[in-house]
Design a protein that fits this description.
Layout lengths: L2 H114 L3
């Protein structure tokens, strides 16, 4: 082999060594990135687990609120029914009061008439 050929091979080897060094540095950077991603994924898994737990708690709360709402609706219906009964009873009381006023008025007129008659 000639010396120019050796120089060419030496140059190619130097270039390959430089490329391998760059590749190794890039691989090291990728390893660091993968480690960071693994850590981030682990944190996300924890966050998802917490969120799942929160969702379950919210579901239970919503179920309880639905039960409470149904009970309140029943209470409201009972109150409305009681209100209707009271209104009906009040109508009767009003009519009775009108009758009493009429009777009282008639009685008052009769007693005044009796007072005016000579004895």
């Amino acid at each position: 082999m000639t010396e120019s050929r050796f120089i060419q091979i030496e140059s190619m080897l130097s270039e390959l060594i430089r490329i391998v060094g760059n590749t190794n540095a890039a691989v090291e950077g990728l390893r660091d990135d993968v480690a960071i991603l693994k850590k981030d994924v682990a944190e996300l898994k924890i966050d998802v687990a917490v969120l799942k737990n929160d969702v379950n708690i919210l579901r239970n709360d919503v179920a309880e609120l639905k039960i409470i709402t149904r009970n309140k609706q029943k209470d409201i219906e009972q109150i409305k029914e009681g209100q209707i009964r009271l209104e009906t009873a009040m109508t009767g009381v009003k009519e009775d009061m009108k009758s009493l006023y009429e009777i009282t008025g008639e009685h008052d007129v009769a007693s005044r008439s009796l007072r005016r008659r000579p004895v």
